[in-house]
Amino acid sequence: MADRPWVQPQDVIDYTEYSDVKGRSTSKLAIDISRAEMQIMSYTNNKDFLDGELYPSIPEEVKNAVIILAEAFAHNAIEKTKNKKSETFDDYSYTAESSVIEVSSLFDEIAPLLEDYKKAKASNTVNMRLRKL
Fold it and tell me: What is the pTM of this model?
């Protein structure tokens, strides 16, 4: 089995531009990384990443996809805890828009990274071919 986690929390911290993600604890980033790994295995329908003989080490493309998804999960978790959406001080008003990242749209961006590792899903149907004797 390829060693999990496939990336370390420091890899996500080094990659991200979000200051809130850089300040996130490594234990929480480890959970975000685990979630990203599971999402990638589900998206590619490829549990072979867990097989050490087929994948003694995880390919760089898959690691990059994990980092991108883990960053999004960490950022979204932080954004969801922020309660302040607007403030008013005398004549000054401020409204903050939510910057939650749509994870499903990220798969369009990381799909080229995972294309070589995607497996076809079973259709759960039976095809019978009959011929005349």
Answer: 0.78
